[in-house]
Design goal:
alpha/beta; 8-stranded mixed sheet; 17 helices; 6-stranded parallel sheet; 478 residues; 34% helix
């Protein structure tokens, strides 16, 4: 899936395998900051939706700008793109940006110069002017963001630096899209919300799974009432990454594995959470109010290391605390329930679960199957493909065989993003969605440590979730 696979090392001046002091201090400080919320959990007990809603609302800092809900992009003929991070993910996305009409790649950045220059050469081969290359150390991205000829900055780097890069782009007046998760700390999520509102620039979680063909079909069926009144949904990132996490070449350094030495909760909720949040109109008529998370012992990575990694490898100095599997129950203001799962440390066929249920039936993915009344009977699953002609999103009808990875959803995401920018449309999701979909990262850690106690999820919209508004189930532009 669209892991933020970087071409960036963990931090400037630190040997491979060693997190920077700054990184460790920021992580520790962030956990200490959000842990202050945990002290208030004793009064919640099992809690109620109203209590969680009240606690979360009171945690919202005062708004310093104006809402970004419903704010359109400025219309432009060409979208001028800057790309930060040219490892597996960033380099893989270059071709898609080049394939979409009206997009020009103006600048590329990676501290590994060979990767930046390879990306620049690919842009030139596509017939565009050679982009500017920023490869002078870990912080050259700031010079890219300061350019006056960029409209959008795309970030595909290690999670540790997503927040700093998004922040820098916003402060330089650029719209920014970040691979997931958009940040790792609750205070960082609030700062991105604040900066987006103050700078009047969109900060987006570029969640490709929201543009999967199945996900978009289910979304349209839900909005058409095919599932009746919606009751529950489930999403996950269950993906055996053990071999890649210990690979000396796949990631640029051990940054992703090191997060399993720092946090116990769901490190990567967005792929599962984003699509099901869309189904339930989260931030567009409903909102999530609390999360209760449970984690298994952390055994899988150490067991894999024992069997496959030489004893002299630096990873043998690591102690893993990240739960092999986390299971979180998220409650919404309307009383609905969302189940989230995360497991990259044990053997498991790939699954995002991707389920939606209501009073008239249920959809479950991996494999795709559906059961709806009155269409199906006798407790036998029906054929989900039978709903394609009526309910496939117009984007998939116009791009039936899109290029690129992940079944074409990457291309659909890039096409739709840049279409909204060129036509001056409201984006399909915004900074409030980015913060909401990422909030389980720090909050599930707190809940796991508190043995599953419910933790309030802040209302990043500051009350605007009550207003229905458009999202990924968009109308085709004229």
């Amino acid at each position: 899936m669209n892991e933020a696979v970087p071409g960036n090392a963990d931090s400037a001046g630190d040997p491979a395998g060693s997190p920077s002091r700054r990184s460790v201090l920021r992580t520790t400080a962030g956990m200490a900051g959000v842990a202050g919320m945990a002290g208030a959990l004793g009064g919640l007990g099992s809690g109620t939706a109203a209590a969680a809603d009240s606690a979360a609302a009171s945690a919202a800092p005062p708004r310093r700008g104006r809402t970004m809900a419903g704010v359109p992009f400025e219309r432009r003929g060409t979208v001028r793109m800057g790309i930060i991070g040219l490892g597996n993910r960033g380099a893989g996305m270059i071709g898609l940006f080049l394939a979409v009409p009206g997009v020009r790649v103006v600048a590329v950045c990676d501290p590994v110069r060979a990767k930046a220059e390879a990306a620049a050469a690919e842009v030139a081969r596509a017939g565009q002017p050679s982009p500017a290359v920023y490869a002078n150390g870990e912080h050259d991205y700031a010079n890219l963001c300061a350019r006056g000829d960029l409209d959008f900055v795309y970030v595909a780097t290690p999670w540790d630096v997503h927040f700093e890069m998004a922040r820098t782009a916003l402060l330089n007046g650029k719209h920014v899209g970040v691979e997931c998760p958009v940040a790792m700390r609750l205070d960082e999520l609030w700062e991105l919300v604040d900066l987006s509102e103050r700078t009047r620039r969109h900060c987006m979680q570029l969640e490709n799974c929201c543009y999967g063909r199945n996900e978009m079909r289910v979304l349209r069926m839900a909005h058409a009432g095919k599932f009746g009144e919606l009751l529950h949904a489930a999403g996950a990132y269950n993906h055996d990454l053990r071999e890649l996490l210990f690979s000396p070449t796949y990631y640029e350094g051990p940054w992703r594995r090191l997060w399993h030495t720092r946090l116990r909760g769901d490190l990567y909720p967005n792929h599962g959470f984003g699509p099901v949040a869309n189904y339930l109109d989260v931030n567009r008529g409903d909102r999530v109010v609390s999360i209760s998370s449970f984690g298994t012992p952390a055994l899988g990575l150490a067991e894999y290391r024992q069997a496959h990694v030489p004893t002299g490898d630096p990873s043998w100095k690591e102690t893993y605390i990240g739960s092999d599997r986390t299971i979180s129950m998220v409650r919404t203001a309307k009383g609905r329930v969302i189940r989230l799962e995360h497991d990259v440390s044990t053997p498991h066929p790939y699954s995002r679960i991707n389920s939606l249920g209501g009073t008239r039936g249920v959809f479950e993915d991996y494999p795709a199957r559906i059961y709806l009344e009155p269409d199906h009977r006798d407790h036998q699953w029906g054929d989900f493909s039978a709903y394609a002609a009526e309910f496939d999103h117009w984007l998939w009808k116009e791009h039936a065989d899109p290029p690129g990875g992940h079944g074409g959803m990457d291309y659909i995401m890039v096409y739709r993003l840049t279409q909204c920018m060129r036509l001056g449309l409201v984006p399909d999701f915004d900074v409030y969605d980015a913060a909401t979909w990422t909030a389980p990262v720090p909050l599930s850690h707190i809940s796991v440590k508190a043995k599953g106690a419910p933790v309030p999820i802040p209302d990043f919209t500051r009350g605007e979730w009550r207003q229905a508004r458009s999202g990924v189930d968009s109308a085709r532009p004229e």
